[in-house]
Amino acid sequence: PSAMREVILEVPKVNWEDIGGQREVKTQLMEAVEWPQKHQEAFKRIGTHPPTGILLFGPPGCSKTLMARAVTSEAGLNFLAVKGPELFSKWVGESEKAVRTLFAKARANAPSIIFFDEIDGLAVIRGKESDGVSVSDRVMSQLLVELDGLHQRVDITVIAATNRPDKIDPALLRSGCFDRLLYLGPPNETDREEILHIHLRKIPCSSDVSIRDLACLTEGCTGADISLICREAAISALEENLDSSEITMKHLKTAIGQVQPSDIQSYKELSTKFQR
Ligand code: ATP
C-alpha cells in the first residue's frame, strides 16, 4: 500500500488579482520564488543564497493556500501539493519513501513548487516503533535530507503553510530549511472591500449593494468567511425566488448575520512572535 495517494501535478490558475489585500506578501513571495531563478548570477556575485523553504503562517482562511497557488501560477511553475498528515503511513519505510518520491517528482517536473499544507501535522508524535524511532522522526529526517539537497537548485521551491507555527519542529525552522517566514493576517477594511469585489465579480448585484458598507459590516471576517457570505447571499436570493437574477443588500446582510466569523482572536499573537 502506498503511504499517500499519488501526488497530482497541476498548474494552478490563480492570479494575484484573485487575492484581496496582502500586497506585501505577494511581493515578497514573488521575490523569493522568481528572483533566484531569474537572477542566479546576481545572488552569486553578492555572495548569498535564496531561501530554501518559505513558511506561510497565519489564521485559517487568510489565503495561505491561495497565495501558494498564485505565486506558482504567476511564475509559470508546476505545483505539487501534499498535506502534512498524508505523509504518515503505518507501514515502516513507506513514509520516507513517500517524501523521496515527492521530491523526485518535483525534480522531474522542475521548475516546480512543492506545497506542504498543514506542515504542523508532521510534528505529531505517533506511537514509537520497535526500534524506538517514531514515524514522524523518520519523515522529518528524510525531509531535512531532501531540503538539504535543494540548496544547489533554484528551480524547486518548497512552500509550507500552518496555522500553528508554534507546533512546528524547530529543526524545520533552522537556516537552510524553512528560513523565510511570511505572515498572512486577517483583512482590514480596505482589504475586505477588495475581497468582496473579487467574490461578487461573478454575482449580479442590485444597485443598492454597497461594497463599502459591506466591508464595514464584515469586521472580524476572514477572506474565507467573505467568500462564504457571498455564496450564501446568492443561495438565499434563489430560495426567495428561483427567477432571481440579482442579489440585493438584504440578502448580503442576512448572510452576514448567518455566517459565524472564524475565530481569529486566538491567533493574534502569532504575527509578532514568529515574524522574521
Ligand atoms: P486554512 O488554514 O484553513 O487552510 P488558508 O489560509 O489556506 O486556510 P485559503 O484556503 O487560501 O486559506 O482560503 C480559503 C478561501 O477563502 C479561498 O479559496 C478564497 O475563496 C477565500 N479567501 C481567503 N483569503 C482571501 C483573499 N485575501 N482574497 C480573496 N479570497 C480569499
From TrEMBL:
Q: Look up keyword ATP-binding and say if it applies.
A: yes
Q: So which domain of life are we looking at?
A: Eukaryota
Please report the stretch or stretches of sequence annotated as the AAA+ ATPase domain: 50-188
Q: What keywords were assigned to this record?
A: ATP-binding, Nucleotide-binding
Q: Is ATP-binding set as a keyword in this record?
A: yes
GO-annotated cellular components: chloroplast
User: Which GO terms label this protein's molecular function in UniProt?
Assistant: ATP binding; ATP hydrolysis activity
The record's comment on protein family reads: Belongs to the AAA ATPase family.
What is the name of the protein in this document? AAA+ ATPase domain-containing protein
Q: What is the lineage of its organism?
A: Eukaryota, Viridiplantae, Streptophyta, Embryophyta, Tracheophyta
